[in-house]
Amino acid sequence: MIYLILITMAMAISVFCYAAMPLFIGKTGAIVQKRSQAFASKLDRIVMKSDAQRLSYLYVWMPVAFMAAGYLFMPAPLKLVGVVVGFVLGLVIPGVYIKILIKRRRDKFSQQLIDALMIMSSSFRGGLSLIQAMEAVVEEMPDPISQELGIVLNENKMGVSLEDALNHLYGRIPSSAIQQTITAILLARETGGNLPVIFSRIVNSIREHNKIQQNIDTLTLQGKIQGGVMALLPFGFAAAVYGSNPQFFDPLFTSEMGRLILVYAIFSELIGAYMIWKISTYKDF
Fold it and tell me: How many Cα atoms are found within 13 Å in the side-chain-facing hemisphere of 246?
């Protein structure tokens, strides 16, 4: 009788799994596709479309890989902790990576904007129109500014107004320098202002802004270094104590309360590091 019950339960579970598997696969595929498209849309402005699609799958499967790594490499009492921490890191790291790439691209664009405005000013003095001046920047300067202005020109050729195309540029690379430049261009087109003079003033404003930003980075560097030291200090202390007395941390690994305290300590460490990083970061818009 017991064997019959077990066989019946096994068959029922098998039928349920067989019936639920298509739904599970469909839901999983939809989630993967949604996360992949969201990540690829962020990468389209940074890398080529094919590379963005390939990196988007990395974004989707990284939490799974980190969970597996946490389970495999953590000792037996901490496998659950390794899985949780791996999942969190797998979710956070791709987003941080994209923010770093976007910031680098925005900073490089802002640095190139000074030379681009000088080229456009020279083009205006040579009798070229605004579109022709932008085409000269696209031809003479490297990425990312040539790529971004190329997108603006292509949108304008496809029927999008120049104002909307420039606003799309600001949406892709938001910065105060871009906003000043777009405002100056639009006002000059409506009122007939002297764009070379306006651009010269914008160049001076950007240079002063860059000097201020360098001073801010220097002043906040000390806070970032202190935050890094404070974040690494518990791990250094644990390594030193473990090297002198390996049994000292056994209560953390063997008892339920110890494992809960360890999980709480890890998450508190991550939250503290994030808060220090946010405090030490300045945004100008």
Answer: 0
